[in-house]
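Bumping my old thread because nobody answered last time. Still need a sequence for this structure:
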């Protein structure tokens, strides 16, 4: 077998897997994997977002799921490739309930990693391509209802005389993308947003905010950005795009609406959700609710001795909009991650005297460098090589989280060597650098703790040149009437303090709207259980609670950056659609609530 061409090897392995699964021969199937193996599944076998690590875990999963899954019709798509002894191939398959796709990576004739993901529910596919709706009946009809009349009727009735099957709490990028996915699957959904317009969650941020990720990484589902869209999107342009998107995708989107409370009736299997819509209190009865309130929960406020003594203005970064009011004033920015850097730049451009207070080391990566070596498959060059955004998403998802650190460690070896002079100059300024507890850099910090990193788009040069001051290596003792007192006895005068101190976990929103008991039952979101500071074990293998069943029935979390929201919105929508249609969804694996 090892002397065969890569495509023949992949086809032979896939045929062996198909034969073993069809026969229900779990030992034969698990024997096709290496000892050090991984199978990551998005819904197809497990109705979960989960990774099986090792042969025993794979065997346990198959023993529990094969009878209901009934996998069949395994077929390679395209030619397999070989790189340093690893053969990679893509394939499609079917289960009793769905169609799926995936990728395998073989070594020495056995599988190291297998990835399977649901593409469609059988009988409930999205109406697209050749199956797109006609849009009109070509005949005279005195009872004709036009498209605009039908939309107006739906808007009048949904939430009043007809209840949504799903309520999405939060109408930022994540809620909008999930709303679009659910709409295409025919799931009656209302998305509620506290702001006055779709996109205001971007517009209301500080004036200089621009996306740090490139356009190829940030597309929304169904409607990609046009070819002349800037590489890095300004916040107001992003807000306008989201507002357009909600209209074009025909979302039932309630602005100026706040969720006041929510409770789940175990007997009726439905939620009672009270919302305030432009001053009117409305009770909704959805079967499912999704918290799409951003990547995180409420702001994490600082609690320092002397906070009541400070005579200046104290803001959390979530309250900061512009540095104009601080022109000519001394401003201290507590925090040295992304928001801290961006706020410092905005304040400096507005004419403030800015000092960044760094409480712990930060991972910094130059934007140009990350573009060239970190976003290789999300780029114009990747498109020329046939790697679409959709294909790139699948490539990223096909790597188990347990294997990501190794690749990131190698990437940051390259980055540190490439930008050695930059890092020397930044360190010489007094800025404390690190690349994570295990030298794995920005991405792993994002997954593990969601903090402690910055993609440099200009702030680092201000720090290096002394235009933005830096205070680090000493803890804050207390606030005083005129500023900040440090443990070493030094003081920093400040007319204002901006606390870029991050956010709490998303389940804290559940505590505020449902109950403390349910929030604790569900547990925190994000983090992998890596054991590093801020991400306690045990090891999860997946991100806690994101995009999958939680310990509270019919309660979901959806969020993340544009790329994560784009990709995983599909799988949240498929899970909710399956439940609406009565498709069996036996979930394999426990909720990640530890």
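Sorry it took so long. Here it is:
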């Amino acid at each position: 077998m090892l002397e065969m061409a890569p495509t023949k090897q992949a086809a032979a392995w896939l045929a062996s897997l198909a034969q073993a699964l069809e026969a229900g021969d779990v030992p034969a199937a698990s024997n096709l994997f290496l000892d050090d193996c991984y199978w990551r599944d998005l819904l197809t076998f497990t109705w979960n977002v989960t990774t099986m690590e090792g042969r025993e875990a794979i065997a346990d999963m198959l023993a529990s799921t094969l009878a209901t899954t009934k996998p069949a019709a395994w077929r390679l798509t395209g030619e397999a490739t070989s790189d340093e002894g690893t053969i990679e191939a893509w394939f499609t398959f079917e289960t009793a309930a769905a169609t799926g796709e995936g990728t395998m990576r073989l070594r020495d004739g056995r599988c190291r990693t297998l990835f399977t993901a649901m593409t469609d529910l059988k009988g409930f596919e999205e109406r697209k391509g050749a199956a797109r709706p006609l849009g009109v009946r070509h005949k005279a009809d005195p009872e004709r209802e036009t498209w605009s009349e039908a939309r107006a009727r739906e808007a009048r009735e949904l939430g009043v005389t007809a209840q949504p099957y799903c309520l999405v709490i939060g109408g930022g990028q994540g809620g909008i993308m999930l709303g679009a996915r659910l709409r295409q699957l025919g799931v009656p959904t209302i998305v509620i947003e506290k702001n006055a317009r779709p996109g205001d969650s971007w517009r209301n941020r500080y004036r200089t905010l621009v996306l740090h990720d490139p356009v190829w990484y940030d597309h929304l589902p169904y409607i990609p950005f046009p070819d002349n869209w800037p590489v890095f999107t300004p916040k107001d342009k992003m807000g306008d795009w989201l507002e357009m998107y909600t209209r074009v995708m025909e979302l039932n989107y309630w602005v100026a609406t706040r969720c006041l409370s929510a409770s789940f009736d175990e007997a009726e299997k439905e939620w009672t959700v009270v919302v305030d819509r432009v001053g009117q209190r409305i009770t909704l009865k959805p079967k499912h609710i999704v918290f799409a309130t951003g990547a995180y929960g409420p702001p994490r406020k600082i609690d320092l001795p002397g906070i009541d003594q400070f005579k200046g203005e104290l803001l959390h970064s979530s309250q900061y909009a512009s540095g104009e009011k601080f022109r000519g004033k001394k401003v201290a920015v507590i925090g040295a991650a992304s928001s801290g850097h961006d706020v410092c730049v905005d304040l400096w451009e507005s004419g403030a005297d800015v000092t960044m207070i760094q409480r712990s080391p930060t991972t910094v990566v130059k934007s140009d460098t990350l573009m060239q070596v970190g976003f290789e498959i999300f780029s114009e060059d990747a498109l020329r090589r046939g790697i679409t955004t959709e294909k790139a998403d699948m490539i990223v998802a096909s790597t188990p989280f347990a294997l990501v650190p190794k690749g990131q460690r190698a990437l940051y070896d390259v980055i540190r060597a490439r930008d050695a002079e930059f890092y020397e100059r930044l360190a010489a300024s007094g800025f404390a650098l690190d690349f994570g507890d295990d030298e794995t850099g920005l991405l792993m910090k994002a997954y593990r703790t969601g903090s402690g990193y910055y993609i440099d788009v200009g702030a680092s040069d201000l720090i290096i040149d002394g235009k933005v001051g830096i205070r680090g290596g000493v803890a804050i003792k207390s606030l005083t009437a005129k500023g900040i007192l440090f443990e070493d006895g030094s003081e920093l005068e400040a007319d204002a303090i901006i606390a870029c101190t991050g956010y709490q976990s998303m389940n804290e929103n559940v505590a505020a709207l449902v109950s403390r008991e349910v929030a604790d039952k569900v547990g925190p979101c994000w983090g992998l259980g890596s054991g590093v500071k801020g991400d306690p074990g045990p090891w999860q293998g997946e991100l806690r609670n994101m995009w999958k069943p939680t310990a509270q029935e019919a309660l979901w979390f959806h969020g993340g950056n544009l790329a994560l929201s784009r990709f995983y919105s599909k799988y949240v929508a498929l899970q909710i659609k399956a439940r609406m249609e009565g498709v069996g969804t036996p979930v394999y694996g426990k909720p990640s609530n530890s």
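The first helix runs from residue 6 to 22. Let me know if any region looks off to you.
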